[in-house]
Amino acid sequence: MAEAPDTPCLAVNGLVTGYDARNVLTGVSLSLKSGELVTVVGPNGHGKSTLLRAISGLLPVRKGSVSLNGNVISGLPAHRVAANGVIHVPQGDLLFAGMSVLENLLMGAYLDSDRAAVTRRLDEVFTLLPKLAERQTQIAASLSGGERRMVGIGRGLMMKGTVMLIDEPSLGLAPIIIEQIYDVITRLKASGRTILLVEENPARVADIADRIHLLDNGAFVWSGEPAVLLERDELLATYLGG
Amino acid sequence: MEIIGPVLVSGITTGALYALATLGLSLVWGSLGMLNMAHGTLLTIGGYAAFTAASQLGLPVPLAVLAAVIVGGLIGALIFVLVAYPLSRRSPETFETTIMIATFGVALTLENTVLRLYGGQPLGQPLSVPGAISLGAFVLPWQNLIIIVSAIALMGATALFLTRTKMGRAIRATAQNPDAAKLMGVPVAQVYLQVLILSGMLAGVCGVLVSSITQLSPSLGADPMLKAFIMCVVAGLGNLPGAIITSFGLAIVEALVQFLAGARWGFPALLAIVILVLIRRPGGLFGRVDVRRL
Fold first, then answer.
1. ipTM of the complex in this document
2. Strand locations in chain B, DSSP E?
3. Which of A16, A171, B47, B279 can bridge B211 by disulfide, Cβ–Cβ 3.0-4.6 Å?
4. Contacts of A90 in chain B (CB under 8 A)
């Protein structure tokens, strides 16, 4: 069935989820159109990563729904969410530590049986992230933090997907590496990728994000354009420590 | 050479069998965090399946071995579907303990079923090959050569499968990080099923090889299972290459101790080595203290 032209690529409606008896997200809604980059910012431990885990099916959705191109994907197991086109680059990379860089990248293409297409995408990843080509035989566990992050992004790019969820790509990295990572994300956005990005620092995404949602205590407390948020000193001071 | 030759042949043959038994056990532990206490019984059933196919149905040797592989794989699949999967879904926090107890129950049930079907009398495995090759003073029985070559070929094939195929990569990926594997689209439960089937198939062949130099009995798999567990612990749980190296090393040590000090000292010597290794390296020779998966 053809989707309506205004159907969002990804739509999250009234999402409630959490761990054990506690709800971490208490009713989050957002949507992304094709080619948009939307960022969720907020203090640590307030549900940013939980939101991405719920969208990708790693965490069950308790209430609300997640739709991809108009099809409800909440309730599906994570491997089927991935098969539907959600690419999740998780926080802390979640690499296959005992496998080589190349094997990690090939795991990204697990669902693709078209060898020529996989080889083509691998070439594209190596062009975008040339360091991975140099390190392709190296075991993932022996990589530096920045290289691991690159492998995580590269592995995501090896997947055939509609939406990329990228979780705090700058976490724990040196400023120069963060710059390189954001250069890659900027190029992904320019190439038309639809990206939901979780980040702590709104200034980092000011130039590339179409919208920012400020998440606090499991709910969005502010949504709008990045430039506007950066002018709201009281919001930055209250929720992001200035 | 006249004295040490047979000791080495015995040690390497036993090492090949231990390694093959350990491979399946370690594969399941490394992937699912599951100590399959029924692994030894899968060896027993493999041996009896080949015996039934060859002696009672009159099938040729390759088909008898194939029967052992199929029956081993089938029971491995049933253990996953009927026991491991429901337990992992119902109580993932206590899975490592409950699955050990549950598979111990499975082992007892299967062993008693074999006892009921075939009786307790030891039976001769018809797949033994008589004769030996003489290389000067060095005598290598054909059966030992077949065991060593078969075990090494199977371990090599398993290694190739795990490293060179998409399914093998998915098994390793799932063992290393199940959540990340799910995000790549890997159906993790299906991978666990494949691991149990593969482990059962390896156990089936191992049972045929063990029974070809001993005799078939309902408790055939108990000793290899115990030794395989020791090898896994000494190597570091879930470490496949380490388990194989350890199996050959300890089997040769065991054979030497048996030769020098008497047969009854072989097993105590193994246990002493386990204790010493665990005191010095609690994670095993090739493992890390905090590592429990492949």
1. 0.92
2. 132-135, 138-141
3. B47
4. 179-180, 183
